């Protein structure tokens, strides 16, 4: 490919900096940020060219083994962007921010979430693990505090005492999860990215994200599995 990658400008650098400090940025925020950076640094702005703008940054990040990745929120199907370090798995990245015992609690929580039917683990189940940790036992109060930090840092999200993986975590950890949970980690049959919160076909076992289920069945007269054509028995969200 003889084409030179488009030049990085101050607008690209500014955009990247904000993305990195945010950890994760929702799509509409990223579009606003794109415009803001271009206008601030007097760089040509085209509102429909965010993806090109990002791929310019990505071509310059490549030698650094980094990449801006786009992912979809499992709650509402909205796009999000996160900067991913390809050289180290997120678990090593997390290792610089958390203690060994906190990481063990996180990994155990991730096990519960990924092995669950619906992609959630209850706080009760997670807290019961806290006193079985190999590193050292953790008191429930301590464990609750640590879970709170994982939510604030956008590795987990929590609804009514149920925990699941945050969109940021899924974008950054997709490869790690697919290779470490090969038997259970499933990709969404519709969008082909990792599905944690999903509905599963009772007949053939494929999974679909809830927003994808909603979209897919909107057009069908009766809900049938896109793969085996059996009746879809889950409640359509």
From TrEMBL:
This is Non-structural maintenance of chromosomes element 1 homolog. RING-type zinc finger-containing E3 ubiquitin ligase that assembles with melanoma antigen protein (MAGE) to catalyze the direct transfer of ubiquitin from E2 ubiquitin-conjugating enzyme to a specific substrate. Involved in maintenance of genome integrity, DNA damage response and DNA repair. PANTHER family: NON-SMC ELEMENT 1-RELATED, NON-STRUCTURAL MAINTENANCE OF CHROMOSOMES ELEMENT 1 HOMOLOG. GO terms for biological process: double-strand break repair via homologous recombination. The keyword Metal-binding applies. It is found in: Chromosome, Telomere; Nucleus. The lineage of its organism: Eukaryota, Metazoa, Chordata, Craniata, Vertebrata. Component of the Smc5-Smc6 complex. Residues 188-229 form the RING-type domain. It catalyses: S-ubiquitinyl-[E2 ubiquitin-conjugating enzyme]-L-cysteine + [acceptor protein]-L-lysine = [E2 ubiquitin-conjugating enzyme]-L-cysteine + N(6)-ubiquitinyl-[acceptor protein]-L-lysine. It comes from the Eukaryota. GO terms for molecular function: ubiquitin protein ligase activity; zinc ion binding. Keywords: Chromosome, DNA damage, DNA recombination, DNA repair, Metal-binding, Nucleus, Telomere, Transferase, Ubl conjugation pathway, Zinc, Zinc-finger.
